[in-house]
Amino acid sequence: MNDDQLLRYSRHILLDDIGVEGQQRILDSHALVIGAGGLGSPVALYLGSAGVGRLTVVDHDTVDVTNLQRQIAHTMARVGAPKVDSIRQAVTALNPEVRVQTVQQRADATLLTELVAAADVVLDCSDNYATRQAVNAACVQQGKPLVSGAAIRFDGQLAVYDPRDATSPCYACVFDPRENFEEALCATMGVFAPLVGIIGTLQAAEALKLLSGAGTPLTGRLLMLDGRHMAFNEVQLPRNPACPVCGQPH
What is the model's pTM? Predict the structure, then answer.
């Protein structure tokens, strides 16, 4: 770590749980962010500001004026531009040392197998059930920790699924991929603007803890936020031995 980095990250270095060693681990790390919208915006900005050495951001969409109510990495000047390019500009303006790789396409199983294998932590900031299941399956297959967030209306949730931990469930243990869940979309149901910021910031916090070794991750716990009353509830998540993704004999 050079003198400029020691100064830039000094407030992290002052924390006993992080220090020079933990910050160096952050600088050496690679985070994969799936989705460059409401959750992906604060995730990318905070990971970038904290010095994550490499960010790979995946999203197929372009910036729309309706996104600007909550997707804080984007601007009016970038309406119509690919979201991944907009995210890259925002992170680079904040911290030019971060290497931002962009992939402008949907995150399918083939792409995820390649990208997840190269990452140290994966953050699911997507907005549809099929992608969430595909991301989880790739993380289980590659043995990579997954920080999963979701937000709709006034309700948010956050969990860490870590296949390196024998007691940790995976996303499919909690949300069975064989069941038909009704898709809830912001475009039809709405979302409270700061909610995605809260959940996305919490995702970034959990990822930085995993990368640096600080604190205790949210592994095996589902944190739920009722934004109307600003109340958090936590549920313990056991591993499902019959899970079609991580259970035996898979």
Answer: 0.94
